[in-house]
Amino acid sequence: MINFINSIPTSIYIFASLGVIILGIILGYTRKITVFRNYQDVAKVFMLVLIPCGLLIILKYGQIPALQENKGTFQWFLGILEVLMLIWIFITTYKDNGNIFATILAFVTKIPLGIIFVFYLINLIGSGGRFSSGGRKSRTESAIVLMLLAPIFYALVRDRKWSSKPDQNE
Length: 170
What we know:
Layout (H helix, E strand, L loop, with lengths): L1 H28 L9 H23 L3 H5 L1 H27 L2 H26 L7 H24 L14
Helix pairs in contact: 1-5, 2-4, 2-5, 4-5, 5-6
């Protein structure tokens, strides 16, 4: 009984967060808010996850002595880069929506969706357990989640063009 009472706030936070994300998806789908401006905006959110993954792989497996000696400085650089990326994404989201509440809702929708998508994409592409049954099951689950998320991303993109140059989108 006590464990159940202690777990109530955690589950409330999880359900409230899911509710906010679902509300953002619904309002983005009906074009009440702009979650993603175009595919470049989607790429920025993906880079929010891929930049630290790539840089940490370089730090761990790279044979660069300067990086190995200055891990703390490199991690600070990575943190500052992530904060700047988040600020850039927030500013472009505000320019698209114009309203701070719509901006916060779109931001809270786009960041978790992007993180989930990229993590499942990395899991699908990753080579861990490639020939074992566990690896096949993990890749299958990742493929299913990605197939479910891809149409959501497509629906949340306002301008479905690949380039900012008008002559390249025909």
